[in-house]
Amino acid sequence: MRLLFLTNRANALRARISNTFTLPERFKGTVVEKWAKYWTGLVRDYKDVGVDVVKFGYNKPRKALVITGASLGLYACVKRNPDEEVFLQLLRQWNNKLILVSPTEQNVIAKEYVRDLELVLNRNTLRTLSLGFCTLLWVDLYSKDDCTYKAICEYTGVDYLKFYQYIIDIGFWNRYWRLDWKMRNFDINYL
Q1: Looking at residue 24, what is its pLDDT?
Q2: Do 16 and 106 reside in the same domain of the chain?
Q3: In sequence order, which residues have a C-beta less than 8 Å from that of residue 44 and are 6 or more positions away?
Q4: Whose CA is closest to 185, among 66, 94, 123, 77?
Q5: In a domain, 44, yes or no
Q6: Is 89 in the same domain as 167?
Q7: Are residues 157 and 92 in the same domain?
Q8: Alpha-carbon distance 167 to 137, whole Å?
């Protein structure tokens, strides 16, 4: 009921404004009149969408809550989507922590993983693919600076069906999950 009351008030206010505000005769039939009609139509459309959303929320509150929660969750994932700079910072932090441990006490898996990532960075073959809510880090076959025919030709690149084999990490929520998983026990020697 309250929603209908607000809708009636908004319609009355709009009618009052449209009655009091009219374009002068010199602007009729010009670009200014078309521009004013465009903006009033746009405001009317957005007002109708807002009213429909509120009505939907009153009629189906659970569904509206699920849609709102999913939208907010997706928005939060997009805001916290890491990029290549975050990966390089995390790699430097883990590398510095690994260096502080004696080579005999370093975990072999963590040491090899960091060494492989450093080789990929030195070869300049690390690529990022942002999907909006997460980021895929993958290794390309050729360097960014390579100008040979094999590197430039689109048919000699990474095959889409085998793309999953080249993925080295997945970034989500400001973390790179494989890097964190490989480095969780970096200071324990399993030999």
Answers
A1: 77
A2: no
A3: 14
A4: 94
A5: yes
A6: yes
A7: yes
A8: 6
The pLDDT, as a whole number, for residue 7 is 67
**Domain of residue 47, residue span:** 2-59
Cα 175 to Cα 10, 24, 169, distances in angstroms: 47, 59, 10
* Residues in the chain with pLDDT values less than 50: 1
Same structural domain for residues 126 and 177? yes
Residue 78 lies in a domain: no
What is the reported pTM?
Answer: 0.71
Based on the fold, state whether residues 126 and 167 are members of the same structural domain: yes
Closest CA to 110 of 121, 102, 98, 100: 98
Nearest-10 crossing angle of helices 108-123, 84-99 = 130
Q: How many domains does the chain have?
A: 2
